[in-house]
Amino acid sequence: MIIYFTRHGLTKYNKERRIQGLLDSPLTLEGKVKAKELGTRLKDEGIEVIYSSDQKRAMDSAKIINEALGLDIIADKRLREVSMLSHEGMTWAESVATDPEREDLIMSRPDLFNEGGIYPYRDSREDAEAFIESLMKKDYKKVLVVTHGSKLRVITTVLEGLDLKDTNKVELIKGLSLKIYVYDEGAFKLLHDDKDYDNFV
Questions:
Q1: Are 81 and 20 in contact (CB under 8 A)?
Q2: Long-range contacts (CB closer than 8 Å, 24 or more residues apart) made by 196-199
Q3: d(Cα 178, Cα 6) in Å, to the nearest integer?
């Protein structure tokens, strides 16, 4: 199986450098145009199905991509973004100013980050593992997965056998860029990485 992973398109909150997490903001015109471009790029790849986070920005991206593909889109809540809890909606600058130690912990030891006994990165890792495990039981040869920036970092730790504490050492992929993995002989191997990165967009 070959899995094409992408991040949703640019949103209003992305442009404002705001933390989205489980919140949503609409795709910008640029986000919509890039989604359409990705659909054209993937049209002849032989992808059989699209899995998407059920959050609106991801589903909207998946639907625009799918205009060129004409496939089933399966919404899966296990692909939702990592929650940033009480700081969702803040700008990154506001978040750091409010609690710089919190930001340092998220970046250095996301496995230990919690608020009120909720451990968002641990929960996200469990969801990612469950999603990948269920996907590998399917008979698809090529699948597109539309998800989120931090969630794709978490998924990468699962695919590459990394520790959860190293999640935020994984490069954050830009919206609608591709990371493509193949599952072969019991392991995932990176086939392609657009290497088109921006920490917030």
A1: yes
A2: 197/171, 197/172, 197/173, 198/172, 198/174, 199/172
A3: 5
User: In Å, what is the CA distance from 97 to each residue of 11, 101, 103?
Assistant: 23, 10, 9
Which of 30, 45, 48, 81 is the catalytic position? 81
Question: Which residues are within 8 A (CB) of 52 and not within 5 positions of it... i.e. 6 or more apart?
Answer: 58, 59, 61, 62, 73, 74, 75, 76, 79, 145, 146, 147
* 8 Å CB contact between 35 and 61: yes
pLDDT mean for each 10 residues of the chain (201 residues): 98 97 97 96 97 98 98 98 98 97 97 97 98 97 98 98 97 94 94 70 41
Cα angle 188, 192, 197; round to 5: 115
pLDDT of 199 reads 45
Q: Cβ distance 61 to 176 under 8 Å?
A: yes
81 is known as an active-site residue: yes
Q: Does the global pTM surpass 0.70? A: yes
The residue assigned the tokens 């392991």 is 187
- Listed in sequence order, the DSSP H helices in the chain are 12-15, 29-42, 56-66, 92-98, 100-108, 120-135, 149-159
8 catalytically annotated:
yes
Pick the closest to residue 201 from 26, 4, 11 (CA basis): 11
* Annotated catalytic residue within 8, 101, 148, 185: 8
Per-residue confidence (pLDDT) for residue 128, from 0 to 100: 98
pLDDT for 171 equals 92
